[in-house]
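This part of the workshop introduces the protein records we will be handling. A record pairs a protein's sequence with a compact description of its fold. As an example, a complete record with its sequence and its structure tokens follows.

_____
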Amino acid sequence: MSVSDPVSARVFIYHTVTNRLAKAVGPSSGADVDVSQKFVGAPYYFDDGQYIKMCNAIARELVVTSGRSFALDGPWRLQHQNDEIATYINRGKIPSVYLFSTSLTWAG
């Protein structure tokens, strides 16, 4: 999938997040994920390790698909760990700011 605009980036991030959540709760698909919920607590119970792995996967896949440097640094991760899943996916910083930078690291 080419990540060439903010909409494509959001779709990509949606699939990455929902597929990882679906794997965490058992045999289901990303389509079964309720994005109005949070990562922590019912029904997903994402722990810190799972959240970090998901952030790493998003960053790694965005680098591979776009060829651009990208990182979700610790302060950014901590700030958004308790977001609703839909809010996390739609954070403007991931889809839009990233796409128009040649090298980007968020420090908070």
